[in-house]
Design goal:
5-stranded antiparallel sheet; mainly beta; single chain; 6-stranded antiparallel sheet; Immunoglobulin-like
Amino acid sequence: MSGKGSILASACFLMAAFVPLEPAQEKAGNLYFLPEYYPVSLRSTTTYEVELWIDGGVDSLHGFDLHIVYDPSKLSVDSAVLADLPGSYPCFCPTEVLGEGYVHLVCAVLGQEVISGPGPFLRLYFRPLEPGFSVVKVDSVIFLRPDNSRIPVKRSYLLVYIKGHPGNREGVSFLKRGKNLYISVNPRGSVLGIYDMSGRKLPAGNPSALGRGFYFLLYKGPSGGLRTLRFFKP
């Protein structure tokens, strides 16, 4: 199967205000979460809502096959549903959620209708089984046109939002739409800066200053504790 990528997406929108990049820098480059993995901090009372997005979107999509892997010893899938895709059309979407650690969704648009847009294409709801950290990974993505030819996928990615108490109290998430990166922070917290792997602080809101590689977002949670999130700029 082709189209491997990462799709760490989450969409609870119990989050605070979005912080956009500088308007003059929107075309300079894009920031993404670590492309293939996202460490999920597990809380016993927290639900994680995960959305699958495609960089640049898709055009003339008639069906897709998604395979997402997780650790069944750490996470339980409450549900997996088709997201609110653009357009209005009937779909046939059997979803297989197995305890062996993967979710498989196949969607076929009925009739001659097609889907065009960025997504999201799938929503997953996870619940932690024990404290600690776990990983959710997109194992494969296949998008097909009406003639069954494959649609190239530049990059798929997941965004993870924390839903429920107490997980959202320290919540920070990234959301990329088009050429913009949005950083969502709990209103009682604050972003302190972006740093490279050597610890050097970088100019805020300027993706053109970041080369390809890993970086850290440093922020202060509402309880006053310092926290970091690692992300990747392709």
